[in-house]
Design brief:
- The chain is of the alpha+beta class.
- The chain has 3 domains: 77 residues, Integrase, DNA-binding domain (Double Stranded RNA Binding Domain, 2-Layer Sandwich); 93 residues, DNA polymerase, domain 1; 199 residues, hpI Integrase, Chain A.
- 47% of the residues lie in helices and 10% in strands.
- It has 15 helices and 7 strands.
- The chain is elongated and about 105 Å long.
- 28% of the residues are buried.
Length: 409
């Protein structure tokens, strides 16, 4: 006679295990300790076996009957349901081990030590925020170009066209790693070349005309927020390094007697050591700053913890407070300002400028110059640049005399 919920609830444990049969090999085993287990007794290839279907009441009578019916169908076609369950579990584990998220995190773990800290944080944030929600659980070998495009469209829908291009590049790197590690055979991002909306506009807005740049310098001097932030704002145009390099500046990297800031390769985008000659004006700011933060690790520590550098949004937020929004000028924009004015107004040699921007510059034989290339000339250029900024700050841009003639390049 088939079981009922009432009969199951009334079943009490005895000193021996009890079996309450429902029919077709399905029964409920009541242990002496009171546990109630669903079992399915079947024969496969002439051998009697049992399959556990869960415990009551977690698995109800109706649910047990459904599981039993599925298992009987397998037996009917000669498939052992116990072996099938193990194979399914293994397949699920392999699927999880080869999911896009698992492979991407493995790729990131190997890649991140070679990335600048601030940049590596951005890469991880893009993976977690833009890719994992859409592609994370999918087997990396089964992801198609339309599925990748769907993830990119979600980014474009919020107007982040430049980000979409960058995320697609990261996505391609993950797929190429999956191919190299034997977990995929193709990179679906290749089929998406030209499929994204072109990124338009200037990514890092910058003031590049002398007179308004002088106005910006005066605004920086008048900043009335945090003194540490004010020093960072004033130093930024003098050294024109990337914002992340400035934020992560450490006192141990500065040789004030030699008038240089030596940034280690681990912090540089191009993964090469970089030397920043320090002008008199830059040294004066650094010496003032030493009284505030010289006892710690960072020149510009976080307000929350001196063991961490200031937030990556601090300088841009300060610029917005001064009235310069993201379309007018950004912290990264100081690099474009310096590059333009050093070339077009002060007429310094382009290779000196590119060296100081930490861009790769090659000699006539195609070899990259080392970090000390043209260092004396770069010292002169950085001092000339600082003197020029003093002139602009005073509102005398029309009286500037080029420091070098183009004919002398």
């Amino acid at each position: 006679m088939p079981l009922s919920d009432v009969a199951i609830r009334k079943a009490k444990p005895t000193n021996k295990a009890q079996r309450l049969f429902d029919g077709g090999g399905l029964y409920l085993e009541v242990s002496p300790k009171g546990g109630k287990w669903w079992r399915y007794k079947y024969r496969i290839l002439g051998k009697e076996k049992r399959l556990s279907l869960g415990t009551y009441p977690d698995v109800s009578l109706a649910a047990a009957r459904e599981l039993h019916a599925d298992a009987r169908k397998l037996v009917a076609v000669g498939v052992d349901p116990s072996a099938h369950r193990k194979a399914t579990k293994i397949a699920g584990m392999e699927r999880a081990a080869n999911s896009f998220e698992t492979v991407a995190r493995e790729w990131f773990a190997k890649k991140s030590p070679k990335l600048v800290k601030g940049y590596s944080e951005k890469v991880l944030a893009r993976l977690e925020g833009d890719l994992f929600p859409v592609l994370g659980k999918l087997p990396v070998s089964e992801i198609t170009a339309p599925e990748v495009l769907r993830a990119m469209r979600r980014i474009e829908d919020r107007g982040a066209y430049e980000t979409a291009h960058r995320v697609l590049q990261t996505c391609g790197q993950v797929f190429r790693y999956a191919i190299a590690s034997g977990r995929a055979t193709a990179d679906p991002t290749i089929a998406l070349r030209g499929a994204l909306t072109p990124a338009t506009g200037t990514h890092h807005a910058a003031i590049t005309a002398p007179e308004p740049f002088g106005g910006l310098l005066r605004a920086l001097d008048g900043y009335d927020g945090s003194l540490i932030t004010k020093h960072a704002l004033r130093l930024a145009p003098l050294v024109f390094v990337r914002p992340g390099e400035l934020r992560h500046a450490e006192w141990a990297e500065f040789d004030l007697e030699a008038k240089v800031w030596c940034i280690p390769a681990a912090k540089m985008k191009m993964r090469d050591d970089h030397i920043v000659p320090l002008s008199r004006q830059a040294l004066a700011i650094i010496e003032e700053l030493h009284e505030l933060t010289g006892g710690g690790k960072y020149l510009f520590p976080s307000t929350r913890s001196p063991r961490r550098p200031m937030s990556n949004n601090t300088l841009n937020a300060a610029l917005r407070r001064l009235g310069y929004d993201k379309d007018a000028h950004t912290a990264h924009g100081f690099r474009a300002s310096a590059r333009t004015l050093l070339d077009e107004v002060l007429h310094f040699r382009p290779d000196y400028i590119e060296h100081q921007l930490a861009h790769t510059v090659r000699d006539p034989n195609g070899r990259a110059y080392n970090r000390t290339a043209h260092l004396p000339e770069r010292h002169k250029m950085m001092q000339g640049w600082a003197d020029y900024l003093d002139v602009l700050r005073e509102g005398q841009s029309d009286t500037v005399v080029p420091i070098r003639k183009r004919a002398h390049r």
